[in-house]
Amino acid sequence: MRLLIADSDPTLKELYEHYFTDQGCQVVTVGNGLQCIDAIRKQMPDVLVIEHQIPWGGGDGVLQCLHQDYPFNSPEVVVLTSDGHTKNSCLDGLPNVGAYLRKPFLMRDLSKLIQRVKERVANAIV
Fold it and tell me: Is 118's pLDDT higher than 90?
């Protein structure tokens, strides 16, 4: 599974990369919205994990751009939030937002969410 993880915290990016690489995933991490869009244009991930308040575009800006550029081929999305809300009205109307996770969280919780999102997509295709 190809994961793109967009988070502004360098320590968390390193942790994500090691954890999910050990889980057998191909992982790319980026630290802002512009890098995220660039990484998507280079190779479409299976799942995008994005921090809602990521600099240079924010999660909502990146997802709107993604939906405009790839309306039928967007990856599934997990949104990380630290603002106390598990949902955000700016993101609710966008397709492929499969889950929200509030920071701080356990890595196994993120891993379970990613797996559930992928299973839901696989079941919808069948």
Answer: no
- Provide the whole-model pTM: 0.88
Q: What single DSSP character describes residue 23? A: T
**Cα-only R_g, the chain:** 13
Tell whether domain 2-125 is in CATH 3.40.50.720.
Answer: no
Query: Rounded distance, CA 18 to CA 76, Å?
Result: 21
63 contact partners, CB below 8 Å, separation of at least 6? 50, 77, 91, 94, 96, 97
φ, ψ of residue 101 in degrees (nearest 5): -140, 125
The average pLDDT across 14-23 equals 96
Domain boundaries, the chain: 2-125
